[in-house]
Amino acid sequence: MTAGSEEQLHAFVGKMLGDLGGAFSVPTTRVGFRLGLFDALYRDGPATPKELAERTGALGERYVREWAMAQAANGFITFDAQENRFSLSPEQAMVFGVKDSPVYLAGAFDLVAAMIEGEAKVEQAIRSGTGVRWGDSAGCLFCSVGSFFRPTYVNSIVQSWIPALDGVEARLKEGIKVADIGCGVGFSTLLMAQAYPSSSFVGFDFHEPSIEEARQHAATHRSSGNVRFETSAAKSIGERDFDLITMYDCLHDMGDPRGCAAHIRSLIKTDGTWMVVEPIAEDRPEANLNPVGRLYYNASTMICLPTSLDQEVGEGLGAQAGEAKIAEVISGGGFSRVRRATQGPFNMVIEARP
Fold it and tell me: In this protein, which residues make up the domain named S-adenosylmethionine-dependent methyltransferase Rv2258c-like winged HTH (predicted)?
């Protein structure tokens, strides 16, 4: 091995140590969320291991110290060796403490665990070329997906995504009929319903447990009477004359996105709008070899692709299909005007008009 190649090997091994350290952090970080350890540091400030154990319900102090040292080594919390105290910096708090922060990542760690839980089923699907039914690969995949997307939705739907659509926000304030298709556990639907009380909203999803969860969320948050949830596949929806139809991070998961686009066209008014939110992606695959693309390609392998291939047609767009492919699917359904209305670090928002 030459000196140059040996240096490259050491650099690559260093990268792998960093990546494996991140993987090793998943179970300890999830424990920290569930036991309220991050919350205690965020809510009550710096603490010694003894104080942190007492704050969180008399947990085992020795375990708490080891957990805290692990998080300090991760860079997730801060350790003051002289004071023997652990704390959250403002930046760390945005990720681990502030639940409505756009970068609160509790759901992301749960999603990783769900992907690992579904590994055997996805491996078998890869061997056979078949799919894995949504919700079957892990005990609460749909819950973790909902939690993963919630921070982005809380900070984007009403604040920037809907205002970027041509004339839609004003109509929502006046009162229109809206369908949120592929609503999952209902976070997106409820956020819109709460922001625009004069409009009526119905969330559709083909996964009954997700709809049950959405209804529970609606009851918990005491949502007004302008929202309801129904179990239905996108192509089976019978209601018509919607002024606005939204799809958040789900078109690429559908087995027949083209057939879905055509059916959406039949559900929407001639002056209506279809808002399609999809993972951010470039059209050239090689342009997606970056940190965001890395997350999406891995999630797509374990979740999005198996879900699509389990359904009729099984087109398998994947989470990194890119704007050109998504626009082609939408236009093929009978929409004449398709544009990117806005984007963020993780999503692009496509506006389609008949």
Answer: 30-95
Residue 277: which of 228, 211, 227, 344 has the closest Cα?
344
Confidence of residue 31 (pLDDT cuts 50, 70, 90): very high
Torsions phi, psi of 135, nearest 5?
90, -15
Query: How many other CB atoms are there within 10 angstroms of residue 121's CB atom?
Result: 17
What is the rounded CA–CA span in Å between residue 338 and residue 354? 9
**Global pTM value:** 0.94
Q: Is 44 helix (H, G, I), strand (E, B) or coil?
A: helix
The residues, ordered by sequence, that sit 6+ positions from 121 with a Cβ below 8 Å of its Cβ are: 132, 136, 137, 306
Contact of 88 with 103, CB cutoff 8 Å = no
Nearest residue to 110 (alpha-carbon basis) of 185, 18, 221, 45: 185
Task: Show the DSSP H helices in 157-256 as ranges.
Answer: 168-174, 187-195, 208-220
Residue 178 pLDDT class (50, 70, 90 cuts): very high
**230-266, pLDDT tens digit by residue?**
999 999 999 999 999 999 999 999 999 999 999 999 9
Upper half-sphere CA count for residue 253 (Cβ side, 13 Å): 30
Beta-bridge mates of residue 202: 179, 228
Band of residue 84 on the pLDDT scale cut at 50, 70, 90: very high
DSSP percent split of the chain into helix, strand, coil, nearest 5 = 55, 15, 30
Q: How far is the CA of 62 from the CAs of 52, 167, 214, in angstroms?
A: 11, 58, 39
The encoded tokens of residue 251 equal 């078109």
Region 192-209 average pLDDT: 97
- If DSSP codes are grouped into helix, strand and coil, which group holds residue 176? coil
Is a pLDDT exceeding 90 seen at residue 139?
no
Asked if residue 41 lies in contact with residue 97, where contact means CB atoms within 8 angstroms, the answer is yes
The pLDDT value recorded for residue 135 is 84
